[in-house]
Every structure is written in C-alpha cells, then in structure tokens.
Amino acid sequence: MEMKTLICFLGTALVSNASPEAIFDGKTLDGWVVKGPAPWTVEDGILIGKSDPAKKGSILWTEKEYTDFTLEFQFRFNGRVDSGVFIRQNKDQIQIGISGSLKRDMTASPYIPGKGYPVEAKGVAELLKEGEWNKMKITAEGNVYNVELNGKHVMEYTSDTAKDKGPLGLQVHPSIDMKIEYKNITLTPL
Questions:
Q1: Sign of torsion, CA 160 164 166 169?
Q2: 121-136 exposure pattern, b = at least 16 Cβ within 10 A, e = fewer
Q3: Tens digits of per-residue pLDDT, 55-80?
C-alpha cells in the first residue's frame, strides 16, 4: 500500500502544473513579427490574416521560441482558405483549409515540404464548421504532433524534420485571395 502511494505521489510531482499563457492579447500584435506583405490586423479581439492585393502572403511569427507545448486557439473562415500553424520552424506545419497541391481540405493534417501530407487527419469533414468558430489543439512533444479539432483527436504524426525549439507561425498563403480569423490563442508549456 505504501509503494502505491509513493508511486502516485511521484507521478503527480512529474506532471506539469503550467498554466496556459495567452500569446495573443486580443488588442495588438505585441509578441508577434510579420514576415511578408500580407496584412495582419486586430479587430474586436480577433486576429485577422488577409491577402494583400498582389496575393503575396505572409507569416505571423511569435517573437518567443518554444520547445514542447500545447497550443489552443479558435479559428474561422469563409470560402477558400489555405493557412496553417508552423511548428518551431518554417517547414513543419499543421494545415488549415484547402491544400493548394491536393485541391481539397486538409485541415489538421501535417504538411512537410518534400513529403507533402504524410498522414491525413480523420473525420475533419464532419467536425469542421465553415463560417463558424472552430477550436484546434496542437500538442508538440519532441517530434510527435497531436491535433484535436473541436474536441476530437484527429491526427498523430512523428516528424523526422522537427526542430527542438523555435517560434510558431500563422500563415496567409501566397497566390490565393483569402481571409482567416483567430482568437483565444493560448500556449501551455509541457
């Protein structure tokens, strides 16, 4: 009986008690850096990524770098969108919207340059609500990525191109006229 108590105590001590940190304050782009011409704005607590007239696209990067984390946010779009979340670099990405190469929705699936979409998220068509707020939860632990969409686990992928540490990025894809909105962006270190 004492051994079970000790094991439970040690297990509890190892669990992270980190609280979610708001990495978007709902008012400004403080803590973020825009790379590229597409404008990113904040209106009424919503972060908006929209194509520029030339459709050149851009990435909004966090100023901070992260190792292992759980990132949670809400997103909304209408019509065609090609966006996503870059994980610690400008290569490994979790897709939001229509894949330019596959011409179909690959939301919550990893996109890896040179590999395309090595796995496809399951059940997204039933879960994703265009024009409404959707919730995504991305957990990056080492080189393993897990994604939940609207409360359901839809994808796990082990990346051989993962970096140990780096910033996070939100994308407005070039060559497409699009708009995506984000809110309630929090990160919990693991």
A1: positive
A2: beebeebbeeeeebeb
A3: 999 999 999 999 999 999 999 999 89
Tell me whether residue 11 is in a domain. no
Ranges assigned E (strand) in 1-115: 21-22, 32-35, 40-43, 46-50, 58-62, 69-76, 82-87, 93-97, 110-111
Q: Match 């340059």 to its residue by tokens.
A: 113
Tokens of 50: 């929209």
89: tokens are 């670099």
**What's the chain's average pLDDT?**
92
Q: Which domain holds residue 46?
A: 21-189
Q: What angle do CA 76, 80, 83 make, to 5 degrees?
A: 60
What is the DSSP code (8-state) at residue 31?
T
Beta bridge mates, 69 = 140, 189
pTM of the model: 0.89
Amino acid at 187: L
| CATH number for 130 | 2.60.120.560
Count of domains for the chain: 1
Task: State the Cα–Cα distance between residues 5 and 23, nearest whole angstrom.
Answer: 37
- Let me know if residue 7 belongs to a domain: no
Structure tokens at 87: 């994980």
